From TrEMBL:
<protein>
    <recommendedName>
        <fullName>DUF433 domain-containing protein</fullName>
    </recommendedName>
</protein>
<dbReference type="InterPro" id="IPR036388">
    <property type="entry name" value="WH-like_DNA-bd_sf"/>
</dbReference>
<dbReference type="InterPro" id="IPR009057">
    <property type="entry name" value="Homeodomain-like_sf"/>
</dbReference>
<dbReference type="Pfam" id="PF04255">
    <property type="entry name" value="DUF433"/>
</dbReference>
<dbReference type="InterPro" id="IPR007367">
    <property type="entry name" value="DUF433"/>
</dbReference>
Length: 76
């Protein structure tokens, strides 16, 4: 996990309902994940969102991985 990479993810209560965004822009981490899940390539995303950098996309993926890495407790 890279703290420098994750610093690209911002949380602002009044922006996008407090959802994690990319570098303060109104583009949510979930938007990036949806684009990738729909089959968009890195180059397509970067072409459509010219303010983005490749590292922003990797930051979104890393942020999602960190959020999903919580331990799962199973009740006996």
């Amino acid at each position: 996990m890279s703290d420098q990479r994750l610093a690209r993810i911002t949380l602002e209560p009044g922006k996008c309902g407090g959802s994690p965004c990319i570098r303060g822009y109104r583009l949510r981490v979930s938007d990036i994940l949806s684009l990738l899940g729909s089959g968009a390539s890195l180059s397509e995303i970067l072409e459509d969102y010219t303010f983005l950098e490749e590292e922003d996309i990797f930051a979104a993926l890393e942020y999602a991985a960190v959020q999903l890495s919580h331990p799962v407790l199973i009740a006996a």
